[in-house]
Amino acid sequence: MAYTEDRAAWFEGQGLWQHVPASDWNDWVWQLKNRITTLDELEKYMVLTQDERRGIAFAGHKLSLAITPHFFNLIDRNNPNCPVRLQVIPREGESIISREEMLDSLGEDEHSPVPGLVHRYPDRVLFLVTDRCASYCRYCTRSRLVSNAQDYNFHPEYEQGLRYIESHPEVRDVLLSGGDPLLLSDKKLEHLLSRLRAIKHVEFIRIGSRIPVFLPQRITPALCDIFKKYGPIWMSIHVNHPKECTADLRAACERLSFAGVPLGNQSVLLRGVNDDAGTMKTLVHRLLQMRVRPYYLYQMDLITGGSHFKVDVRKGLEIIHALRGHTTGYAIPQYVIDAPGGGGKVPINPDYIEKITDEEVVFKNYEGQTYRYPLTNTPVTRTIKSASTT
Ligand SMILES: *Cc1c(COP(=O)(O)O)cnc(C)c1O
Ligand code: SF4
């Protein structure tokens, strides 16, 4: 169903936590300490479905349950199909494993020269610096290690990772991820960023984080100063639904942006959350309003217990087709499939081309009308005298 909430409304305030002093509410450590992590805590605030109760009983073996108060406020407690609720409250589907699914669907472990560092592409590495997040997304690609519910026992190896990067001059781009790198203390982050910045061949540093969305309070002036000092630091945030675009997230994006951090967004295409063009269009418009450029729309990875979120690729293509030409070009993410087994991200695009020959390209525009672009250069018969000969 398309998302029809008032486009001008951005969630604001403390919601269910009115009684808490603003100084606590705005403190990211308070938010983390007061996360909802158990069935009992959840049931204090809402009536769960049978499906959810079963999912929660299983979560301890798959991916922990954790929801920050900030994010919990966005859940419609009267609607079991609320798109925010589906992302963070486990359902029974998580315990159902399909044959197509894998624990490490992107073959990351095989592409790790040192623990926690994935070197898949020639010039860039993915550096996993923690296994913890502020809240846990039920469809997480790294469910195998994130939150350690599956006893993967991931121990980030900063020193080994840094040494690998230092000794590989082909690595010009480092992507800090996890888990969520912004859960690290300012001190640890500054250490990592300063070490990376000191490496001459590292031209590009970026952070993948859902903290601005789950815990906007973490984007403190002190953190922004670190980004300023070691910048440019690029950041990909992770918003899937327009309801997640709160006044607090918008303010956090403004602080990041003013500190010189270019912002992109990565969404995962999720059944019942954002698998329709209307919702996606509202989302990308909100992102632009927050100074965030939609970067990728991911086809969901084949993680174990994820089938209840899976969307047909044709639906994804239909959404992209409904955006192109119909809205701002900046608003359109690149739809990708991260190739199962570790082939990297592959762009998936609607096909506008009808025919290419030596003579012409025949293609359709966004409205479905046919156009032609000739590839030939046919001289006209009348030649024009050049000015120098007169
Ligand atoms: C996604 C990813 C990157 C970054 O890819 P870009 O297309 O440059 O954003 C790098 N390494 C790994 C292993 C990745 O999964
Ligand atoms: S924030 Fe990212 S790493 Fe953490 S649970 Fe969500 S998708 Fe996984």
UniProtKB/TrEMBL annotation:
Catalytic activity: L-lysine = (3S)-3,6-diaminohexanoate
N6-(pyridoxal phosphate)lysine modification, residue list: 345
InterPro entries: Aldolase_TIM (IPR013785), LAM_C_dom (IPR025895), Lys_aminomutase/Glu_NH3_mut (IPR003739), Lysine_aminomutase (IPR022459), rSAM (IPR007197), rSAM_sf (IPR058240)
Superkingdom of source: Bacteria
Cofactor(s) in the UniProt record: pyridoxal 5'-phosphate; [4Fe-4S] cluster
Keyword S-adenosyl-L-methionine annotated: yes
EC category name: isomerase
Pfam families attached to this UniProt entry: LAM_C, Radical_SAM
Entry EC no(s): 5.4.3.2
Residues engaged in binding [4Fe-4S] cluster: 133, 137, 140
GO molecular function (one): metal ion binding
Keywords on record: 4Fe-4S, Iron, Iron-sulfur, Isomerase, Metal-binding, Pyridoxal phosphate, S-adenosyl-L-methionine
Gene3D superfamilies membership: 6.10.140.1170, Aldolase class I
Residue ranges constituting the Radical SAM core domain according to the UniProt record: 119-331
PANTHER family from the UniProt entry: L-LYSINE 2,3-AMINOMUTASE, LYSINE 2,3-AMINOMUTASE-RELATED
Family classification: Belongs to the radical SAM superfamily. KamA family.
Protein name (database record): L-lysine 2,3-aminomutase
Species, as recorded: Ereboglobus luteus
